[in-house]
Amino acid sequence: MGKILAGILSGVSGKVAGVVGGKWKDVNYLRAYVKPANPNTEDQQIQRSLFGSAVAFAKLLVGQIFNVYTDKFLKSMSGFNYFIKHNIEYFTDPITYQSIKITEGKLFFGGVSAAIYAGSDVTVAYSDAYGSNGNGTDLITGVLHNKAIGKFYFPESEGTRDGGAMTFSPGSGLSAANLVVYIFAAQLVDEVLIMISDSDYFQVTT
Hints:
By secondary structure, the chain is α+β, with helices and mostly antiparallel strands. It has three helices and 13 strands, in the order ββββαααβββββββββ.
C-alpha cells in the first residue's frame, strides 16, 4: 500500500491508485503505474549476471570500506550503490579486476609500486609522493582480494603516506596469481575524514 507522507502536495511513497510515488536525488516524483514486463531476454540475463557478481564482490566491502570511507561523500546514494553503478560493467566473465575502483576521490595518491607475497604475508609498497593536496600523515589503506575464493583481507592497521609500505596477512599456501590489492589514501583533520583518493589496483607477485 502506498502512503501520502504529509498531505496531498507532499511526497508519495509507493503505489496510490494508478500512480507510483518516490524520490530520486532528493526530488519527489509521481508517475503512472505500469506493470513491469519480464521477458527474460538475453540482455536481461546478462545484466542480472553482472549485477549478481558485482553485489557478491561489493557486499564484503560495506562495513570496512563503504561505511567508513565513502558514504559520507555521497548524497542520496550509499557507497555500496555507488560502487555497483560505477563498476558493474567490469563484472563480466572473466571479471576485469584491474578496472574496478573500490573508492573514488580527489585526494592525490601516487599508487602502488609492488605487492609481494612471501611466507604468509603480502607486503605492499606504495608511493610517498604528496602531489597537490596530500601530506605525510595521510592514511594509506585498502584490501587484499583472493579472486579464487572471493575473500577479502584487511590490514590490522593503516599505513601512512610517509611510511611507504603496509602488510596483509592472508596465510601461507596461496597462489599469488589469485591475489590482487586495492589501495587508497585517506586524509583526516582532527580525526575527521575530509578526503579520499581513487583506489589503485595491483597484481600480487612472489
